[in-house]
Amino acid sequence: MHHVTIMSRSTCHSCDVAKAEVARICAELGATWSVEDVDTDPELRAEYGDRVPVFLVDGKEHGYWQVEEERLRAALA
Fold it and tell me: Which of 77, 27, 32 is nearest to 56 (CA)?
């Protein structure tokens, strides 16, 4: 089973949109997902802060800013 992590922050509208899209796709494909707030850790903020939302699939960076649905589905297949 695959896992998607969304690197996010609480004040990010694009992150909210991405969460809804990832939730829908993961539910359809039986994958799990979670959210990590980059503002809770200085290292995460330094690495991802300018690009949120960032999507990790099984711990590896997959994309950022917008969910590319076809690409994400292929990675989770």
Answer: 32
Dihedral class, residue 32 (left if φ above 0, else alpha if ψ from -120 to 50, else beta) = beta
> Which domain CATH number covers 13?
3.40.30.10
What average pLDDT does the segment 3-16 reach? 96
For the whole prediction, is pTM greater than 0.90?
yes
What range does the domain containing 43 cover?
3-76
Q: Which residues contact 59 (CB under 8 A, 6 or more apart)?
A: 3, 5
- The tokens for 9 are 């922050």
